[in-house]
Input
Amino acid sequence: MKLITYQIEAHEFIGILKEDNTIVRIPYYTDMNDLIERIDEDGWKKLRSLEEKSGDTRLEEVKLLSPIPHPRQDILCLGLNYTDHAKEAKQYSTEAFSSDKTKAIYFSKRVNECLPDKGTIPAYEKLTQKLDYEVEFAVILAKDAFNVKKENVKDYIFGYSVFNDMSARDLQTEHKQWYFGKSLDGFCPMGPCILTSDSVSYPPALRISSYVNGELRQDGNTNMFIHDIDEVVSELSQGMTLKRGTIIATGTPKGVAMGMEKPAFLKKGDVITCQIESIGSLTNTIV
Output
């Protein structure tokens, strides 16, 4: 099941996106945060019943928003979670991206608003000259997680989305922590939908890729994680409560701009498309 947030005129709705690109509106919740926080077994039964109905609105008739336009908290992120990306990052800056670690690298990313598919990303030309993209597989939690065992993590997953962990590499490497260089407004594109966790096998093994101006840059698979979903959620939940609705960006495969022999950082007019098999495409333009 694909869940979306969309707008008609000034009104915002959530709905189920069907394979024929029609939408079935979900009437029981105020927004996607509300759905994730309140849905129970009966709520899921209602959604599955709605999924069987014919859509009454076509996707092209609405303005598609990010599935969670305003997350309740910062995004939790993993750094250097694909082996080949860890190598290319270290080659770019050994000091900033040391990969000689056996433990996962965690950081957070400030988010005021998640950009939707076709949203525009500011170039911030006075602030950064090294704007970069990172396609990532986002995991959204279905319930509060505390001291969760690895074998039980599957039961805590609400769904998945496509995430672009936009980064200002110069800001990221100038500071000892990555928070500033990752957290400028517009640096959190996510969408086009949330794919519910029961829609694909677990753990997901899905092709993940990115394109810049139509050129393939990144091409990997979510089965290539160094630290997988079970390990990450279980470890983070040891002594720290992960609230339902928490978004975890799980890292990016090789092929980012800084990893190129001649880094091709983003500039105004560039179009970035991030894709994950079974979920869809997320396209954004630098302005």
Summary: The first strand starts at residue 2 and ends at 8. The first helix runs from residue 32 to 38.
